[in-house]
Structure formats: structure tokens, C-alpha cells
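Same chain as my last thread, 352 residues:
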Amino acid sequence: MKNANGMGSVYKLSGKRRKPWIARKTKGWTIDCKTGKAKQFYMTIGYYSTKQEALAALINYNQNPYDIDSHKFTFSDVYEKWSNEHFEKIAPSATRTYKSAYNHSKPLHDMRMRDIRPNHLEDAIKNANVGNSTKSRMKSLYNQLFKYALKYDIVDKDYAALSESVKREDATIIRIPFSDEEINLLWHNVDFPFVDMVLIGIYSGWRPQELATLKIADVDLQNHTFFGGLKSEAGRNRYVPIHPAIFELVEKNYKKAVTLNSDYLFNDENGQQGMHMTYDKYRGRLNKINKKFGLNHKPHDTRHTFITKAKSVNMNEYILKLIVGHQIEDITEKVYTHRTMQQLREEISKIE
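reply #2:
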């Protein structure tokens, strides 16, 4: 029985073959310059053991057309397609970690995705000259890419799921809160570049990435509140009261941003890579503050200081979680997380 026009064709190839049946469709037409006659050229959908399998593949393709050349996609091709979709949904800090994981996976870059097996993935991770945190992100990237490839019929099997997971060691990062003496030292030197930004971090609990990328549109001076957040569902889109101690510092940076015609709260007119702050710029400015005043702190120490201070003054546990963006596990409390801003202000003001 002849197939309908435009559907494509199925026929058997000559000779002894494991999969002798071919399914194909007309891809287009060319004109023979000498004879002036039109000639078809085809795209092969696949080779099959039986005529029924070939017909089924042809019907499936006509109902749900897919990229015939997807079997040629390399690891890098899949990463590009996946990242174009995925990076729009995650925070910039998470994007950076995936880009780093990809850059440390060079042995896989030019391999066809269909040819990659668990040993290739495991060797790439094992031989990468990076720490366990980045190796874990590499494994996470491979999981994501194979799921994406399965979704779009680029591979037939999820070999990332079969590869060994990275054994995670206990965290070695030590958070050191700013002491009262160090906080007083910063207050006495608040005019030194970006000391005010560090103090705002200490009295608000923002993550460094959140702090560095705050926009003036998310600062309500009239109601003394910030709005923003990244990383997790609990951390995004949260209100944080502006502590009375730092209100003037926030107001000063706000007015400066308006004068500079900047959308961001924190700015550096002398920045070589744009004016507004980023996490990397913030870390660099903090290092200069450490060197100037003999301190030894990492960017996240400001957030840790806030949480430590909040606990020392017995801030309400759930309000603290709302302010810093931690997940609330208590099911009953989740129902009643609509705390008033006045309650948040009262609790944050407990910190002297």
C-alpha cells in the first residue's frame, strides 16, 4: 500500500543487514543544471529490523517531528541548548557554578552525547583539578544534561544516573562573626570605601550576592524596608526591615545611586567593569577592608553575624527565618507566616 503524499517512504535495502528496513522523507529538491530536471534529496529517519518498525518510526516522525541530526549532538551542543533554558530560571551565583563545572569538563566537550558512558563522566570528575564542591556540581550538571537529552531523544539512556556520585566531605568553611570590637571599629571608619556596605550586611542578614545586587526599586525608604532575595523558594521575594542603625547609610547610598542614574543601591564610580556592585566586586572590596583594619572575614560572615546576634537577643525563631530566607519546617507555622511588618521591625530592633 502506497503511503500518502508527503508522508515519506519505507523500503528494504539489499544484502544481509541486521536492520535492513529504512524510513526516509523528502527533505527538498534540487535542479540539475545540465538537464533542467528536478531531483529529490532525502533525510533518513532511521534503520529498522522490520517493516512494521520502520513504518511506526515514520508515522511517529510525521506526528511529532524532531531533529534528525540530534544523534550528532556533542556534550557542548547539549550544554548550550540546556543552559539557554535553565539559566533563565536560576540565580546568577548558581549560573556561575554550572559554567565552572562545564569549563572543567573539557574531555567531554567534543564527544557525541550518545557515545558518553559512565566511565567517561567519572574520569572527567576524577581528573578535574578542583575541590569536592565543584566536582559535585559537575555531577549535578551531567545529571541535568542527560535528563534534557532524554527529553529530546538525543540519547536513549541516562548514563549520568549510572555513574558514581561524588563523596562529599564535611564542610571545612568556618564562619566567623564580627566581634563587637570589630563592629565598633567599622562604625568609627564608616567613611572608608564600602565599610557602610559591610555594616548594612551585618544589620540586615542578606546573603552577599543578594546584598551586592539590591536595586533601589527594592528599597522603600518611606516604610524602612528592603525587598528581594535569591537562591531558594523561601529566600526569594522577602521583605527585610531596615534596622534603625543603618537607615542613614541606606539612605545615603540610595541618593547616591539616584545621582549616578544607577538602578542599583551600591555603586563604585571607579569600577573598571561597570559601576554597580557584583558578588566578586564586593568580595574584593571586603578584602581591602580586611587589609586596612587587620581583619580576617569572608563575605558570608556579615550574614552569620546577623544570625548570631539575632539568636543572642532571642529574636523570634520564625521571624528570623522569614528575614534571612530560611526554610520553615513547622507545618503549622507555615500557615501563619503572614507576620506583619511591625512584628518584623520589633524583632530586628532587638539587635543593638
